[in-house]
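Example 9 (inverse folding). The structure is encoded as follows.
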């Protein structure tokens, strides 16, 4: 369904997009089940506006599930049921009457495996970020939006002379930055990133980290990473998830990243951040 969103007054030539307005995200006692299998137990986490929160922890402890719950993406993959609340600047994104499409538009997602539309041009890939969210791009201002999003994703200079080439022609790292550009087209208030670098080489990883450092000037970021150096480099806050022997995932500890790495309160956090399991 196509929604009509008022044009920002200061930018008459822009396509119809939501004005950027970074928000705080708050999970309150979030529990999740796949059928009878409980995978998250009362996870509460404050993710401040314009900061980067890193979710760390071993595989299978519910980080991806938690991330998808933060923008109602899990409703697409079926069977997870949920208790608790997710507040975007104090408003529950699960409130009855609040549209699922609104949550996805305000809270964007970038996945582990870059997933641009491979046969679609770079230009159209960026604009697809609008279409995927049911927003019609006015013809005027499309070029500006594409340039703006590719610039923010750190890709503009590399691709500005070949915007008609297909997305699939880019390297893996460039494809991931294209996906970031696509997710920025609707000017999300929060950007969720699920291991965005784990399929990439070290140089591409560094470029994405630079992009994250720039983006946090205007969007709240939550990133899942298995790379402790990366968590230390890019994040302001860290949350350590753990699921011990058949129990559901919990947040063992969270706090400012330097405290989590230099003076963790829980011995399991210390072991994890020091690579001992
Ligand atoms: P992480 O991202 O930390 O590796 P996940 O959120 O992917 O963890 O998985 C947490 C738990 O939920 C695991 O036990 C996993 O097997 C289970 N799980 C994840 N997705 C599904 C699904 N679609 N259906 C059933 N179980 C799932
Ligand atoms: Mg995962």
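The amino acid assigned to each position is listed next.
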């Amino acid at each position: 369904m196509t929604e009509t969103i008022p044009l920002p007054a200061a930018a008459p030539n822009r396509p119809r997009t939501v004005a950027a307005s970074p928000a705080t995200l708050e999970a309150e006692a979030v529990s999740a089940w796949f059928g009878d299998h409980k995978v998250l137990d009362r996870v509460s986490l404050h993710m401040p506006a314009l900061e980067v929160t890193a979710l760390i922890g071993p595989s299978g402890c519910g980080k991806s599930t938690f991330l998808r719950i933060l923008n109602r993406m899990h409703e697409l993959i079926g069977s997870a049921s949920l208790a608790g609340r997710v507040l975007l600047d104090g408003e529950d994104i699960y409130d009855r009457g609040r549209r699922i499409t609104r949550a996805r538009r305000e809270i964007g997602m970038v996945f582990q495996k870059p997933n641009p539309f491979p046969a679609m041009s770079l230009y159209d890939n960026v604009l697809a970020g609008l279409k995927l969210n049911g927003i019609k791009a006015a013809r005027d201002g499309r070029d500006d939006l594409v340039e703006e999003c590719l610039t923010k994703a750190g890709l503009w200079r590399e691709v500005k002379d070949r915007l008609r080439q297909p997305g699939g022609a880019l390297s893996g790292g460039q494809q991931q930055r294209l996906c970031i550009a696509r997710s920025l087209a609707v000017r999300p208030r929060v950007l969720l990133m699920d291991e965005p670098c784990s399929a990439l080489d070290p140089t591409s990883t560094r470029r994405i980290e630079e992009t994250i450092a720039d983006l946090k000037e205007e969007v709240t970021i939550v990133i899942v990473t298995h790379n402790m150096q990366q968590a230390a480099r890019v994040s302001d806050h860290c949350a350590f998830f753990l699921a011990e022997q058949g129990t559901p995932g919990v947040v063992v500890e969270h706090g400012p990243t330097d405290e989590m790495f230099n003076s963790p309160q829980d011995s399991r956090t210390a072991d994890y951040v020091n690579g001992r399991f």
